[in-house]
Amino acid sequence: MQMDNFRNERDQYFKEIDNLNHPNETLVKTHCSYCAMQCGMNLRVNTKTNKIVGVEPRYDWPVTLGKMCPKGVTAYQQVNNKDRLLRPLIRDDQSLKGTKNGFREASWDEAYDLIVKKFTELQENYGKDSLSVYSGVSMTNEKCYLTGKFARVGLQTRYIDYNGRFCMASAAGGLNRSLGIDRGSTIPWTDVQDTDCIFLAGSNTAECHPTMMFRVWAIQERGGYVIVADPRETPVARRADLHLDLRPGTDLALANGIVNLLIENGHIDEEFIKNHTNGFEDTKELVKQFTPEYTSAITGVAPEKIIRAAEIYGKAPNAIVMFARGIEQQIKGVDNVSGYTNMALVTGKIGRAKSGVATITGQGNGQGGREHGQKADALPGYRKIANPDHVKYVSKVWGIEPEEMPKEGVSAFEMFGLMEQKTIRALYLLCSNPAVSAPDQNYVREQLKNLDFMVCVDFYLSESAEFADVVLPTTTWAEDAGTTTNVEGRIIKINQAQMPVGESKPDWKIQVELTERMGRGKYFSHLKTSEDIFNELRVASKGGTADYYGVTWEKIDKQDGVFWPCKDENDPGTPRLFLDKKFNHPDGRAKIFALPYRPSAEEPDEEYPLRLTTGRVVYHYLSGNQTRRIQFLRDMCPEPFVEVHPETAAKYNIDHEELVRLYTRRGETTYKVKITEAIRKDTVFVPYHWGHEKSINLLTIGALDPISRMPEFKACAAQIEKLKIKKVQ
Amino acid sequence: MKKRLYLELENCIGCRSCLAACTQCGGHEERNRNYVYDVNPLVNRQTMPLMCLHCVNPACARSCPAQAIQIHETGAVLSALVEKCIGCQNCTIACPYGIPKFDTEQNLMYKCDLCIDRSKDGIPPMCASVCPTNTLQWLTDEEIEAKQKQFNLDNGKWVTSMPYLEGETNVKVNLPGILQGVTKLF
Ligand code: SF4
Ligand code: SF4
Ligand code: SF4
């Protein structure tokens, strides 16, 4: 391929459109701060004040063409928001932990000194591993990479993990196991509209990744099919050709049932199976049991619908299977991913344009952030701590001896367990808000409170910051430059549009300065800019599965992003995976997995007869720490609610908008009822973007997938109680 | 080439990005000027935008006693002129869709002006720029004609051209049911 003028594909929707330039303003090209669609946008910057004042569509971004959801349109309002933290905060009175009270402003020096003193003391008394780092992937690759190095080389602790355990870990586990590589999508998003069938499992696409919807609808306009598997009739399910309205937590049975029918109907690709896969015979044997009737009995989906879904997917010349948190946030999330991936593997609908498998990544940098060593068991380039060669390579890049590399740590949720046992005594939290997003909040908040010392780095005083002793003010995405890797596996560039607000600093700078004060500066001081970090990341990832070595910031700009793997300067990147039908297992074959069905950790019973499932609304992102502070989004959706089917509501004698008590074995709270026929009768749904007493995660369960260590947010057993009207005394 | 706002109601997912974007048009004082309705909220998630259709012979302007509502040369029916509007709200009552909104503090009407700073130069209005589903599009007459041919509607007409509504409009609307008549690929 000619590198010189290579540019990633533009599709039939691409139009040259001018931007409106307002007087005294300049436009800075960048991407949205929120989900992994990473929609292109221009930030409008006033040239007199040098402040961001608005947003202008970025029509020339080939993936999203100027489109944005309401979060993206208003994202810039995070930057100069009145809630920004301007200076470090210290709280001297530990008894106020868990509240907003008692913080005083401090200088960076004082805050750093305190952190260094506490961290050193704890490590002297309890060992290096008494510190922990809990990170996130709503930040650039540069920051994610450096955070891994910060924990292991700077703080010298084994305990680092990240919020991807609540987001992408099951997809990563399943794709690695089935395909040998965890790049979320095997195809670029510009293929989506041209496929003949899209099978969306556990994805509330219209609310969580709205800007891919025009591509989904275009499939139907061409006469293709949209199939949606979801317990709720979400906006995409409403218009789908087929809505498989399954019980939460039963995806694996549905996947097995469809694979069984694909085999029975002769819709399999025998050549492909023979030459490019392993495991077909075992799987064939196992799925035999999953007849439409048997599958229906588990999933609650009518047998005709299952038959029809298998027929459509089987007959489609090209088809894409996509899934998201709905199937992944289960104790069998990894199996669900492999189970649905089996559909593509038995039919050979993978490894070519317009056909493939994708997980629709949640967080903005959910892809890149899991590749470069923030995960308890991983090192940059998707290397593994358990592999001595990998440790050797990365140690060399970092300038340490392989023996100095800390061992594997534990997953995000399991860190709370170690806090309970006092193995972990201090926490450095950044880019995440577990006091809202983790399951079983009563337990989690207890552990945060019991820490000897906690640092929280954020640009707002989040619910988690309320547990901190020191809060460090960091920058929003628009005050720093760097790269993210979007839903497609395309590395893209975030540009700086404004100087940091107040005394806030980008996360990477804080980490460099802290390590210098901890006497580890020789490993960090050379990193003066975000681009310096990227260039180190390139070397650290070289030769790994997620190889970024050939990516440069310049190349990203020139090519409209670069798809990894990209091995050297002359490599334009890899928009489509497996075109040569070579998968990333050592024998080059994909694995078809025989996956026995197992129920959720907590199935409904007499006491708790309802299935509780949680999710998102279009107006909010993750824990809502950012979006709840933006007027338009708050106006559109100010508070959580519980969705109940009218027949279920009648049974409980509850009305639309009535306050009810919702409870599980772990916690309870009250919500307004939203009556809708767009949900199963045996299921209730609550969005999770709120904290304190409104958090649905007070009720969810901390049961984990054995491989991905992902909690089962999507299914637990619950009960509703009509609130007694209290008599006025 | 002249472009128009074109609506495909069946695509709408109710994200209200169009409303968010409306507040971001420089001339809109951060107030959104159109509507998105939940069609049947207790039953399903169907939604539809209700936008000013920029009537060729607009009832809002006709009803205005102060001639505050001007029609731009592009056909866009503009928001009331601040110095002329007397706050009588005749326009809201006269409009078959109740589009013009009212600012009670300033005693002023405000409505969609198709982001006139943008659309006068052929730049799409903010709503049609961001709409994630192509419910709102900014198309040439040829493109709209092609759409009309592609979607075989029951009544053979665009809804806004039906006699009992406002007659000719600059914005073209496709009824829910755009998939009627689509032949499946297999
Ligand atoms: S939140 Fe996601 S879909 Fe919405 S504008 Fe941002 S990147 Fe795009
Ligand atoms: S932006 Fe488009 S999809 Fe969203 S509410 Fe408006 S018209 Fe509907
Ligand atoms: S739709 Fe209503 S507000 Fe718009 S031009 Fe017609 S009459 Fe006026």
Automatic annotation (TrEMBL), chain A:
Against InterPro entries, the record matches this protein to:
Asp_de-COase-like_dom_sf, MoPterin_dinucl-bd_dom, Mopterin_OxRdtase, Mopterin_OxRdtase_4Fe-4S_dom, Mopterin_OxRdtase_prok_CS, Prok_molybdopt-oxidoreductase
> Mind telling me which GO cellular component terms the entry cites?
membrane
Q: Which GO terms label this protein's molecular function in UniProt?
A: 4 iron, 4 sulfur cluster binding; metal ion binding; molybdopterin cofactor binding; NADH dehydrogenase activity
Entry keywords, A to Z: 4Fe-4S, Iron, Iron-sulfur, Metal-binding, Molybdenum, Oxidoreductase
**SMART domains, alphabetically?**
Molybdop_Fe4S4
Q: Which Gene3D superfamilies did the record assign?
A: 2.40.40.20, 3.40.50.740, ADC-like domains, Dimethylsulfoxide Reductase, domain 2
The Gene Ontology biological process annotation of the record reads: respiratory electron transport chain
Cofactor(s) needed, names only, are: Mo-bis(molybdopterin guanine dinucleotide); [4Fe-4S] cluster
Q: Which residues form the 4Fe-4S Mo/W bis-MGD-type domain?
A: 25-83
Q: Which Pfam families match?
A: Molybdop_Fe4S4 (PF04879), Molybdopterin (PF00384), Molydop_binding (PF01568)
Top-level taxonomic group: Bacteria
* Stretches assigned to coiled coil: none
Q: PANTHER family from the entry?
A: NADH-QUINONE OXIDOREDUCTASE SUBUNIT G, RESPIRATORY NITRATE REDUCTASE
Q: What is this protein called?
A: Molybdopterin oxidoreductase family protein
UniProtKB/TrEMBL annotation, chain B:
| Keyword line | 4Fe-4S, Iron, Iron-sulfur, Metal-binding
InterPro entries (UniProt xref): 4Fe4S_Fe-S-bd, 4Fe4S_Fe_S_CS, ET_IronSulfur_Cluster-Binding
SUPFAM superfamilies according to UniProt: 4Fe-4S ferredoxins
Question: Domain of life, per the record?
Answer: Bacteria
Please state every residue range assigned to the domain named 4Fe-4S ferredoxin-type. Answer: 3-33, 39-74, 76-105
What Gene3D superfamilies does the database record attribute to this sequence? 3.30.70.20
* Gene Ontology MF term list: 4 iron, 4 sulfur cluster binding; metal ion binding
By what name is this protein known?
A: Electron transfer protein
